[in-house]
Amino acid sequence: MRFTSDLIRIDTTNRGSGDCRERPAAEYAAECLSGAGLEPTLLECSPGRTNVVARIEGTDPSADALLVHGHLDVVPAEAADWSVDPFSGEIRDGVVWGRGAIDMKNMDAMILSVVRGWARAGVRPRRDIVIAFTADEEASAEDGSGFLADRHASLFEGCTEGISESGAFTFHDGRGNQLYPIAAGERGTGWLKLTARGKAGHGSKVNHANAVTRLAETIARIGEYRWPVRLTPTVRAALLDLAALYGVEADPDAPGFDVDALLEKLGPAACLIEPTVRGSANPTMLQAGYKVNVIPGEAVAYVDGRCLPGGEEEFVATLDRLTGPDVDWEFHHREVALQAPVDSSTFAKMRAAVEEFAPEGHVMPYCMSGGTDAKQFSRLGITGYGFSPLKTPRGFDYQALFHGVDERVPVDALHFGVRVLDRYLRTA
């Protein structure tokens, strides 16, 4: 609780413009790690964009190492929209409030709590554990995990698997079940820049080469496009898991299988799967013109694209077709899609850790619709899972609080998370 509140009070807002400064939070984390007898290393690609890495030596030197990572930056918060100061770290009625309470200073705090607890008790894990607190995850990760993976790979020597955000949280399905989805995959990131060029001219004249019109038509096609269903192994496993839980018949290999009809039968839990049965491309930004009576010669748009593992070529071909001859497009930022096995001993140990403290829960796999630093660490051959355990009460909308107003986390959820994380890391 204290670590979460302290970290929230350190404003590490990342607007994507390079002005974020994670260093104060990094120094706080490093001091906590030093207090646990570790020797943290602080690393910067750009001034103030600080990352922290430390290694805990395990008892079995022949075992592969495990990466446990969390990012220190947060998205912006408009104070006028909040019930509390978003950087107050206020604790009220058993809840910690503030930007980062869910994404993801809560997990950073839980990691610090476990490590400090081990130091007091003299605990050593079986395998080496590398702790990494990163900068810049909320933008390109170039100053964070990308920088670490590309220029400091030796710090992660021996790491074959990693855990981080967005998994093992409580999802109340409206039917009396408590689901605990563990992430075993991520859609790939394809942020796109579209540029339409045409003939500049007076706004009162006929213009059949209007860049704004060309861009608008293209954006409409992209926004309305229905991407085809592509079931990855992780998504397939999630569908079958929920179908079995609810007693719904499901055979993805059957001719004419209708995934949308199946999702309708899964009720509220369908939202855990629906965003990942297809790729997507959502227009998000438009830039054109400088005066109402001037037709500009160029218009620009940005699109948030996401593709499934194995769907990169289809994604590119589809964008080529949708944009047509009058609009050029390029990747503004691109990262790979990820997939992790759900039948691994690692997944089984995470499941066991959750079930020990939430025996009434139903642990299941799922694929994230967005992405995490696991993408960059995958360059080092590290298989990533989303595992930041929290037990939350009915009515607490965990997913809606990511990047949302009045972001907060119950103190009891943090205590649960520390116990589960401790149990998993001891047995990993």
Outline the structure in words.
The structure is a single chain. Helix 1 (2-9) packs across helix 3 (105-121), helix 2 (23-35) packs parallel to helix 3 (105-121) and helix 3 crosses helix 11 (411-427). With 428 residues, the protein is of the alpha+beta class. It is built from eleven helices and 19 strands. The model has no long low-confidence stretch (mean pLDDT 97). The chain has helices at residues 2-9, 23-35, 105-121, 145-151, 211-224, 233-246, 259-265, 312-323, 345-357, 374-377, 411-427; strands at residues 41-44, 50-56, 65-71, 91-92, 95-97, 129-134, 159-164, 171-172, 178-186, 188-197, 201-202, 280-288, 294-295, 298-307, 327-335, 338-339, 361-368, 383-386, 408-410.
Distance between the ends: 25 Å
* Helix-strand string: HHEEEEEHEHEEEEEHHHEEEHEEHEHEEH
Task: Report strand order across the widest sheet.
Answer: 1-2-6-3-7-18
Unreliable spans are: none
Strand-residue proportion: 15-25%
- The number of strands is 19
Q: What is the helix tally? A: 11
What Rg do the Cα atoms give?
23 Å
Helix content: 25-40%
Give the overall average pLDDT: 97
Principal-axes geometry comes out as globular
Oligomer: single chain
Indicate the structural class. Answer: alpha+beta
Summarize the biggest pleated sheet: 6 strands, mixed
Write the topology of this structure:
Elements: H1 2-9, H2 23-35, E1 41-44, E2 50-56, E3 65-71, E4 91-92, E5 95-97, H3 105-121, E6 129-134, H4 145-151, E7 159-164, E8 171-172, E9 178-186, E10 188-197, E11 201-202, H5 211-224, H6 233-246, H7 259-265, E12 280-288, E13 294-295, E14 298-307, H8 312-323, E15 327-335, E16 338-339, H9 345-357, E17 361-368, H10 374-377, E18 383-386, E19 408-410, H11 411-427
Parallel strand pairs: 3-6, 3-7, 7-18, 9-17
Antiparallel strand pairs: 1-2, 2-6, 4-5, 5-19, 8-9, 9-16, 10-14, 10-15, 11-13, 12-14
Helix pairs in contact: 1-3, 2-3, 3-11, 9-11
